[in-house]
Each structure stands twice: as C-alpha cells, then as structure tokens.
C-alpha cells in the first residue's frame, strides 16, 4: 500500500508498505474523504519515538469497505463508513474498568498513526469493525461526515467533561475547529451566556453562528478582566480550553467560579511541566475541578453524532474552509495544516 507519513521526526513524505492483513473481526477500507489534523503535524514535527518512525499519519477519515473479516456481521464490501479517530480493541479486559480510549495501555485506543499506520493510506485496516465503524447515511455530505471522527467528538467532549448544565455561563478558549465544536456542543447542552475567546474573523463569525453570545479578544486587553466584566465579577460556571498558551490556560482556571469545572482539550507538546498560579486555584480550597481526556470513539458515539447532524442540530461541514481533490492531494492538505494560513479552519481531501 501507499501512504503519506513520517520517516523520522521532521521528515515526512510518501512511503510504500506491505498491504494490511484483514483479521476475522477487521475490515479494510479505501479512503474517500480525509481531513489532516494538527495532531498529525505534532506527530511529524514535535513528537518522537520508535512508534513514530516510518509511520503513516492520519486519523480523520471516511472510507469505503473493500474487505471484511469472516466474523464481521454488520458491514459488507461497498459500504461507506465513518472511521473514528479512536478505535479500541473492545474485547480487552480493561474495557470493564477503565476508559475505552486506554484499554490495554495509555492511548492505545488511538492506534491510527501511533501504534499502527494511519488513514493517509490507500488501504486502511480497522480493527473490531462491528464495534468501531458506523454506516454513513446518504443524506450526510462527505465534508460534514469527515468532521465527526475527531473534531466533533473531541469538541463535544469539552462540555461533557465540564458538565455544562442548563443556564450555565460557559467559556470556550480557542475557536479553531475543536473549539468551535465545543461552542456548538455547549449550546446544545444548555449553556446560557456562552463566551468564546478568539480573533480570526471567520472563526469569530462561525462561533456566533454556533451559539457564542460574547467574543473576547486578547487584542482588547487582559482576557480575564474582560471575562469578569462580562459576568459582573462572578466568573464562569464552566471553562473549556481548546487553544491558547499556558497564560490562557491559567486565566481560564482563574475565572472559573468556586465549584466549577475546567475541561482541557488543548494538546501541550513542547513543555514538560505546569506551574499553576496558587491564586488561580484559590490555594486548592476553591473546589475547582480540572479535567482532560482523549475523545471518545467507537460505533455508538459516531452513530449518536450522526443522528445530531441528520436532525439539523449542528452542521460540522461549516468547519471546512479548503477542499482538495485526489489521493495525492493529501500532501498539500497536510502542508496547509503546517502553514496554517489565517483563513484556515479545516481542510478536507475528497477522493474518487
């Protein structure tokens, strides 16, 4: 098979590898839509390790099944499917007492482009096919569908971790694609005042469309002071960190009310430790809870998100700002994620 990946830290390109072998519970698919992710860039240029050498990248994909294992019951050749970013081995005993994302060890659920080759390939192996894949309905566009495997499930995890309740004042820091989905998810979970931090005009407008009631920009002064002003000095019930630097992270903690939740979705790859200011956490007596986690995967999660798109509750296709065509265009789309032009939210590669 052919795929685009990382040979070693800082060196990316096309590679030829042996075709994947389909086990009895597996499926093999060809990609029909792919979305590069910032995580692919992190894996290629910031992280390192033996597991990231000669590794095909990618974990956001819609595929068409070309082979199924002998024990696969619910899928057949020719089916168009959502391939989640997280595809656990659901038969592992850890499933019974841990998070499915880590059944078998830390982050083993996100095997694509880490422990196994990813989806930037002309043949993709999906383990536990009946438990991981979800059929793509004909009335959902490839652009919308391609945002579900990672951007939508990760963004929606934010308000879930933050336990957003009806009428809560919610803060979302960073309104890239994950933050925008966190805004949409917070609205759907019942947020009242919904404050978003961001500056790029297209992201600001889309945040408002998804439900943001107020926009805060670092260009207008200290973001913590702005948030306290918007909340009459009370702070927020829940904060979701989907972007920004450490200062943003600390200020999100500081403006969260006593008893509130802070959900971190941001990935910090170039630091080795945090030094959270004591006043931000009220010397550990403020009953503030900081949470983080890897996005949920699996078939039922994908089917639930598909249901929300079908019902018109949210349109994730609005995240797509650039389209590429053809398998070879994966490289161009990946490089766009490296360069991150100001008008970029999310690119998609559509493959015949």
Number of domains: 2
CATH class of the largest domain: Alpha Beta
Distance between the termini: 17 Å
Average pLDDT over all residues = 95
Tell me the structural class: alpha/beta
Please give the number of β-strands: 16
CATH superfamily of the largest domain: Medium-chain alcohol dehydrogenases, catalytic domain
- Give a short account of the largest sheet: 7 strands, mixed
Predict the CATH topology of the largest domain: Quinone Oxidoreductase, Chain A, domain 1
What does this molecule look like?
Helices cover 26% and strands 23% of the residues. With 352 residues, it is an alpha/beta fold. The model has no long low-confidence stretch (mean pLDDT 95).
Spell out the key features of this protein.
single chain; 352 residues; alpha/beta; Quinone Oxidoreductase, Chain A, domain 1; Rossmann fold; 7-stranded mixed beta sheet; 26% helix
Report a brief summary of the structure.
The strands form three sheets. Strands 3, 5, 6, 7, 8, 15 and 16 form a seven-stranded mixed β-sheet that branches. Strands 11-10-9-12-13-14 form a six-stranded parallel β-sheet, sandwiched between helices. It folds into two domains: 2-146 and 315-350, Medium-chain alcohol dehydrogenases, catalytic domain (Quinone Oxidoreductase, Chain A, domain 1, Alpha-Beta Complex), CATH 3.90.180.10; 154-292, 3-Layer(aba) Sandwich (Rossmann fold), CATH 3.40.50.
